[in-house]
Amino acid sequence: MTERPAEGLRRTWPQRLLILSSVILASGMFVASARLSSFEQAVSSIVRIEVPAGVLADVYEPEPSDTVNDDDGPTGGSPSDNDQDQADRPQPPRNFLLIGTDSAIGLDDDDPAGWRDRTPGVALADAIMLLRLDPGLARASVLSLPRDLYVTVHRNGVPVRKEKLASALLVGGMEMGAPTLVETVTSEFGVPIHNFVVVDFLGFENVVDEIGGVSLWFPYPARDVASGLYVSESGCTRFDGRAALSFVRSRKPELFIDGRWQRVGVWNDLERNRRQQDFLVLAMERVIDKGARSVLVRDNLIEAVAEAVILDDRLTLRNLMGLGNAFADFDPTGMERHSLPVYDDVVGTSSVLRLHADARKVFDVFRGISLRPDDVPVDVVDRRGPVDETVPAFQQMSYKGFPVRPLIGDPVPATTVRAARDRFDAAVLVGQLVDPLPRFEFDDALADRVELVLGQDFGTFLLAPRGIEEVDAAARAALVAQGEVDDENALPVFDPAPDSEQVATVLPARSTRRTLKIRAASLDGRRPDGSRCP
Q1: How far apart are the C-alpha atoms of 242 and 344, rounded to whole Å?
Q2: CATH classification of 373-481 is 2.20.25, yes or no?
Q3: pLDDT per residue of the chain (534 residues) written in tens, 0 to 9
Q4: 3-class DSSP state for residue 312?
Q5: Helix H or strand E segment including 435
Q6: Which bin fits 207, alpha (ψ -120 to 50), beta or left (φ > 0)?
Q7: By C-alpha distance, which of 178, 365, 150, 149 is closest to 269?
Q8: DSSP state of 170
Q9: 3-state secondary structure of 189
Q10: How is residue 490 annotated by DSSP?
């Protein structure tokens, strides 16, 4: 006779559910670790370019004592040497240079992208973008650099010759093309580049194919004879890799309206750059649909991306994982998109583009400077107690260009800059002028104005602003201490509408040489209501 188990040894239903949950959790952790291992192997297999010293900018890494606000002072605190404290440090912004080359190596003979008069391995920069990723604020900004910009190409710290920007790859050669382009962008535009990513035509096609293509909406049938673009019907069309490449390379698109082919827009690189940015956003949304937010991403998608790109030798797996975590919930439509104001010129027999004077404001975004003093209303709250000064503090701030409202309060020990989180940049700008470096506090109830509370430790206003990296790091530490930016309180996203003041665009003269005969038509790939195709 079989003995029955003692009642005390019988597992209850809650116990069984707990055991089942543990098994599922363990299985999930095993699968996740396997995927992370695959990701690590894929990243380690990426081709790297060894970059000479001084070409790439160093990412600002403050000491722990420089970024901790505590009761002992604005930047006090003891340094920590464990990995957890390292992970908790605010991540600084990074500027990436995204380089799309027109190398035709590996393309099929009938691929329109391979039709050229030169050797397939000789490459120019077909698409050049600046991408600024700010993990601490979950903010991303992108700027397309027209390939026809006339610049002085720099290599190994030496100006080589004047050329179109796209030719910097050619000047640098097979091994030093990307570093030469990076060095040229930094030298010409004063924008630090921390890392770069290179992809050629074949890599682009393979990645688009791996995510199952990208769907775009067209108001009419469309074509571009030069790039090979052809859409036979209006509405949504799923583009595979080859078709997608013909779209992003298109410079002379036409639509079939009223029984004949009619040109779209002004046929210049600025419009092509906008379409490339449009496609980038749509492709990011498609990748997210395919599960990129999860560690359970297909191995072949990870491998396809790893095989398609070339990176600099300073971008580590830890960097990539950190950026991935910071932007895990990022909405691609929230990417800030910028255009350069340029004008036409001719050098010899070559048509080129030159920068308009207003380009400085656009590049400032990628230098970490997004505001000027007259953009920042400040409440100067004097809480120092009795002071003897010839020029009142609020008046000194007004002389620096800030719209100032003077206030007074009871004495406090520490000088503090207070602002809403969506006024982070404004708070940093104010903090750059205060000595010693102030504390930072972020409170969304403060709305549009920044408060500068002058405490008893206040020394003076600096004649020249303190370096933005130091102040930015201190402000980020305060953000981290008060809690990460979440979805409900996320920073407002940039409105990429053409009439936005943040997109300063001066169309080249050749844009207006022909009168357009069609009504306004958009080729941004989205339906008229702004939605994207499934």
Answers
A1: 31
A2: no
A3: 545 555 455 556 556 666 666 665 555 555 555 556 667 777 778 889 999 999 999 987 766 554 444 444 444 444 444 455 555 566 789 999 999 988 878 778 778 777 665 565 567 888 999 999 988 888 899 999 999 999 999 999 999 999 999 999 989 887 789 999 999 999 999 999 999 999 988 889 998 998 899 999 999 999 999 899 999 999 999 999 999 999 998 888 999 998 999 988 776 778 888 889 999 989 888 888 876 655 455 567 777 888 888 999 998 888 888 887 888 788 888 899 999 999 999 998 889 999 998 899 899 999 988 788 998 999 999 999 999 899 999 999 999 999 999 999 999 999 999 999 889 999 999 999 999 999 999 998 888 889 999 999 999 999 989 988 889 989 988 888 776 444 444 333 333 333 333 333 333 333 333 333 443 455 788 888 888 898
A4: strand
A5: strand 434-435
A6: alpha
A7: 149
A8: H
A9: helix
A10: P
DSSP annotation of 114 reads G
Residue whose structure tokens are 């509370």: 453
In the sheet where 94-101 sits, what is the strand order?
47-49, 309-312, 195-199, 94-101, 125-134, 139-144, 336-338
Tokens found for residue 104: 């035709």
Sequence-distant (≥ 6) Cβ neighbours of residue 31 within 8 angstroms: 296
Q: Give the count of beta carbons closer than 10 Å to the beta carbon of residue 499.
A: 6
d(CA 168, CA 152): 9
In the DSSP assignment, the letter for residue 417 is E
Question: Nearest 5°: phi and psi at 145?
Answer: -100, 115
What's the CA gap between 388 and 434, in Å, rounded?
18
Q: Which residues, at least 6 apart from 258, have a Cβ–Cβ distance to it below 8 Å?
A: none
Q: Identify the DSSP state of 298.
A: -
Q: How far apart are CA 254 and CA 224, in angstroms?
A: 6
Cα 341 versus chain centre, distance: 19
Task: State the Cα–Cα distance between residues 346 and 359, nearest whole angstrom.
Answer: 20
Any long-range contacts for 150-156 (C-beta under 8 Å, 24+ apart)? 150/345, 150/347, 150/352, 150/353, 150/354, 151/184, 151/188, 152/184, 152/187, 152/188, 153/180, 153/184, 154/180, 154/183, 154/184, 154/187, 154/188, 155/180, 155/183, 155/184, 156/52, 156/183
Single-letter amino acid, residue 211: I
Nearest Cα to Cα of residue 153 among 144, 145, 162, 166: 162
Given a contact cutoff of 8 angstroms between Cβ atoms, the answer to whether 250 and 227 are in contact is yes
Furthest C-alpha separation in the chain: 105
**How far, in Å, CA of 479 to CA of 186, rounded?**
30
Single pTM value for the model: 0.75
Sketch the domain layout of the chain as residue ranges. Answer: 373-481
